[in-house]
Amino acid sequence: MKIIKTVEDFKKIRSELGEKSLGFVPTMGGLHNGHLSLIKRAISENDVSAVSVYLNPTQFNDKKDLETYPANFADDCALLEKAGVDYLFAPTYPVMYPDDYKYMLTEKDFSHELCGAKRPGHFDGVLTVVMKLFNIVRPTRAYFGEKDYQQYKLLDGMVKAFFLDVQLVPCPIVREENGLAISSRNRKLSAEGLAKAPKFHEILASGGSEAEIAEKLEKAGFKVDYVTIKDKRLYAAVFLEDVRLIDNVER
Ligand code: AMP
Prior knowledge:
This protein is about 40% helix and about 20% strand. The protein is an alpha/beta fold. It has 2 domains: about 1-170, Rossmann fold (3-Layer(aba) Sandwich); about 185-250, 2-Layer Sandwich (Pantoate--beta-alanine Ligase, Chain: A,domain 2), CATH 3.30.1300.10. The strands form 2 sheets. A 6-stranded parallel β-sheet has the order 1-4-3-2-5-6, sandwiched between helices. It has a 3-stranded antiparallel β-sheet with strand order 7-8-9. It starts with a strand and ends with a strand. The mean pLDDT is about 100.
């Protein structure tokens, strides 16, 4: 696996690849089996594969959340190498934001709902960084998890609005056997929190109105951030031990 740290180097490699199809998986590191499912598809469906590991500060409204994000670059490299990834793009802030975030991409509607209502500026950061990454990597296909379903929908809208030549591939949520959606943030939970966390998905899957689900979650010891049914999907975010967990199920 080749590790690339600058825009110039990646662009040079991409132009040398010419017409070869490139499957791309953007991540923030702290890689786990959820990421791995996207990576395996990117490898199997394209001539070459690229993964980015970049903890994007502009999508964090909570500084503590950013500072405590559980990621280890050496572990990530080992996992990617073992999976058979061709290129790892691992930039720094000055590389990604030579403008110091004076320019940003904004969506004016859905990005202000759900996670966007609770995390102001979050989706501006997501859309901006993914647009930058697409311009550098020029992927044929880019793989995103349905765990972050709102993010996937907003990126899909961005691709259509700006006529981008990339095919987005939504990938199913990977869960632990107990139903808990795998997330880098699960590593921040204590043993007790980890034992309680699967109740989150169990309650979402159990049916009922938004208010009923919120009540069940609070009773089970979660602090509810939101529970919203929209477009035949139930979206929810909760806090457990100060760790923010999100999930969604079809309705
Ligand atoms: P992140 O590193 O959290 O930005 O995630 C990178 C990509 O992996 C995003 O497209 C996520 O939706 C996806 N992802 C994270 N966790 C899971 C999971 N449990 N199942 C499927 N995709 C996931």
